[in-house]
Each structure stands twice: as structure tokens, then as C-alpha cells.
Amino acid sequence: MISRFKTVRGNGVDLVHKPMIKRKKSLTYCLLFCLLIGGMALYELQYSLSREEEKASERVASTSLLIGEWIKGSFAASDYILRDIVLTVPVSELQFPAANSEEHERITKYIDDKRKTLPHSSGVGLNDENCIMTHTPAIVGFDASNREWCSVPMNNPGLQTYVSNMFTSNVGELMVIQTRKFPGDGFAGLAGIGVNLDFFSTWLEKVSINTHGVIAISDQNLQMLARKPANPELLGKKVNDPLVKEFIASGEPYKTFRDVSPLDNESRLYGVRQVEGLPFVVIVGEADRDWQAAWRHRVWLSVGALIILWSLAYYTLHTYWERLKNLAELNKVRDKLENLSLTDALTGLANRRCFDSVLKAECHRMRRTKAPISVIMIDVDFFKDFNDTYGHLAGDECLKQVADVIQSKLKRPQDLATRYGGEEFCCILPETDHAGATTIAMSIKDEVAALGIPHTGSAIETYVTASLGVATLIFDDPANCEAIVKLADERLYQAKKNGRNQVVSGTAS
Predict the structure, then answer these.
(1) Among 281, 288, 218, which Cα is nearest to 252's?
(2) Same domain for 391 and 257?
(3) 189/227 same-domain check
């Protein structure tokens, strides 16, 4: 019945499925929101990580460049001293043994005074055309022809100045030597300055690094010249690092890469620079945990913010679902109340209020379609006497059975059976002609009589019967909505006047 009322009155809102659709939509939107902010956070973290890596790369590049320029500047300064020496000391004095001992002593003192102007210089020496040491505070007469610092310049006529890789001196000191040839045709001899490893360590001490960072200087043979943090055991030792070795072999001036140090197993971002014109490589490394520290902090903040936002999204969604649930329950209650307001509590048929609403709507619809509409008015004969004889409970049961009969004869969903009032019932039959309505009315009359409900309180009938009036109209004016009820009621009255238990239908109007 309830669904029939809604269909007739045009209320097609599904109070059960609509909240479910809203729940699915809201869940979809919530998931999309969470994925969106999660994706944005992930993108921002990836972008910020790349920016932090770029900054770290810039720092190691700048630091390696600064150290390289310091080293270049220092060896340029020592080369000026060597220039003074080779332009001041006559080549003719490069003899062993010395021809003039006083002149030899003077030149030896002169070059030693020059040495003192250079911090971390371990000595200055002169060699003749055969690389025999002629002047030095150490061992005069030493043949250095097999030493790199002398053999390379001697065998390369176009090479005027040269800086060697690290080697161990005769006195066991680790050093590098810078040399410059004496002017003249061919190889006339050279002057050299020895630089100990403290020279390189001094530069590194001036540079600040992060807690787990590292700075190192090596020669072309990957021998460690200096390191920060200091590790004396590594000085002079060869570091077996394939990436640095590959870099030196490539001839590139600078390269950045990430690697795990073979010395302390620390993952770092490295900047490796070849010092221009010198056999030295500057290695600067920032540990990942140092340059990523601020980014990792941001990750935790982002994760916390995401958890809060996702929690708020879940709370909002849960609250919305609770409101939908409450609204659905409220709608059910409202629908139930509405149905109660449209339903006769005793018989379960539609009540007078529903009858008036449906009849008005169907009249307008029939007017548009020019289709017939029929109304059947039904009255239980001598019902007052039945109540007086059997009581109200029996009367109520009688009305229920009559209502069931009426309802059973209406087969279409658009047909409506109502309790019009008291013992009166009324049927609305849209798109039903007069003959069809009369047939339904006759079947209702016969079925009510066939119920066999005793009615000894009446002098005329032995069983409960009903009188019926039928009216059919084709509308051309909405005002006929009232006229058809009036006509059906008049014919019901005529049936009762004619002796009851009959149908008065007249003719179609």
C-alpha cells in the first residue's frame, strides 16, 4: 500500500539506496582527497630532497674548488722562489765536487734562506745536468736521476716546472718536490723545493665540515697526502677507491658522485676535483645523514601532518556517515508517519486524506490523457445494527474482512481502495471504463455476501452484505473531480433505497 501511494502521488525518492549512493560518493571523494594530499606531500618531499642534494653538491664543489685554489696559489708562490734561484745562481756553479768552497757555501746559505720563507718547506736543493745533487743542506752528491721529480723534467725538454707525486725521502720523510729548470739550451740542471705533508694538512684545518663529512687530498697515485678528520695511519698509504681512480684516468676536472667510503663505510655525496696543473686530487664528501638531516626532519613533520589530515578526513567522513544514517532513520520515521497519516489503522487501506489527494492527482492526469476514470462507493448494509448486536470488536473484524475483499478485487497498482469513513469504502479506478468498473463492483458485492458473516440483527438479511454505487466520467474540467464522487454516492444511496445488497451503476456519464 505504501509504495502504491508514493507511485500514484509521484514520490519516487528511494530513502534506502540514496544514502548508500552518498556513502559511496563520499568515500570516493575522501580517498581521492587522501591520495591527493599524499601525492602532493610525496612530490614535495622528493623535490625538497633533490634541492637538498643540489645544495650539498654545490657545497662540496665550492669547498673542493677553494682548497684547489689555495694549493695552486701556494705552489705558484714557491715557483716564484725557484725562479729567483735559477735566475740568480750561475749554472757554472752546479758542480760536484764544488770548485770553489766559499762560493758553494754562499749559494747553499742563499737557497736555505729562500727555503725559510716557505712554511712547511723541508729543504731546497740544486742538481746539475746529470741530476747529481750539488747544493743542499742534506746529502751532496746524491744521484737523483731515478727520482720522478728529476727524471721527468730531464727527459721532457718542453717542461720548465714540475711537481712530483708523493715519495719518501732519504731521511724517511713523506713529501712532494716542486722543481724548475735552469735557463739554457737543453737540460742544464734544476732547483727543487721539498714540501712535507703538513703543508696540505694546514689547508684542511682551515675548512669546516659537517660532523660525518670528510676532506682528503691525494696525488695521482691515490696516495693520501692529508685528511680531515685526521688519521695519521692513512698518510702516505694508497687508497683503493675505484671511482676516484676512474676519475683520475678520465682526465675530467671535476665530478660528483655518491659512494660508500672504503675507509669508514659511510655513505656520502662526494665532489672530486683535479687541481689544475698539479698532480693532486681534492676529495670532499658530505655524509648523507648530515645533508639529509633537515630533510628527514621535514619527512617526520610531513608524515605527522598527513596523519592529522587523514585522521580529520576519516573523522569528517565518519561524522557525515553518521548524519546520513541518522537522516535515513529520520526519513524512515517520517515515511512511516506519513504512511500512517495516509492509512486507515483498522483495515490497512488508504484513508480519506489519501483518497482526496490521489483522486485529485488522477483527475488531472485523466484530463490530460482524455481517459475514463471510475469510482465505486461501497457501504456495509445495516452495519449499525451489526455493531449493536455483536459489539464493536466483531464490527471491526467484519470491516477488516470486507476491506480484504475489496483490496483483492483491485489487480492494478494504480487502483486504490480506501476506507471512506465508518462502514463506507471507496475505490478509485483510473483508465477504467464504466463496464469494467461495474464488473469489479459486482464481484465485490458477491464476494462480501459469500463471506457468510451472520447478521441476525437485521430483519431483512441473514448475512452481512454491501450496497455499491458506480460512476464513470471522461474529464474535460478538473471540477468533475468532485462530481464523480457525488454521482457515485447518489447511486450508492439509490442501491440502499432499492433494498441493499446490489450495485447501481446507471450509465456512463
Answers:
(1) 281
(2) no
(3) no
pTM equals: 0.63
- 471 in the same domain as 376: yes
List the domain range (segments joined by +) for residue 281.
Answer: 209-292
Q: In what order do the strands lie in the sheet with 503-504?
A: 416-421, 424-430, 372-380, 466-474, 503-504
Looking at the fold, whether 170 and 244 belong to one and the same domain comes out as no
Tens-binned pLDDT, residue by residue, of the chain (509 aa): 444 444 333 343 454 567 778 888 888 998 999 999 999 999 999 999 999 999 999 999 999 999 999 999 999 999 999 999 999 999 999 999 988 999 999 999 999 999 888 877 888 999 999 999 999 877 889 899 999 999 999 999 889 999 999 988 877 888 999 999 999 888 999 999 999 888 888 878 888 888 899 999 999 999 999 999 988 888 888 888 888 889 999 999 999 999 988 778 899 999 999 999 999 999 999 999 999 999 999 999 999 999 999 999 999 989 988 888 888 777 777 767 667 678 888 998 999 989 998 998 888 888 888 889 999 999 999 999 899 889 999 999 999 999 999 999 998 999 999 999 899 999 999 999 999 999 999 999 999 999 999 987 555 558 899 999 999 987 665 556 788 999 999 999 999 999 999 999 876 55
Written as one string, the DSSP assignment of 268-330 is EEEEEEEPTTSSEEEEEEEEHHHHTHHHHHHHHHHHHHHHHHHHHHHHHHHHHHHHHHHHHHH
CA distance 453 to 447: 11
Same domain (yes/no): 253, 377: no
Establish if 117 belongs to a structural domain: yes
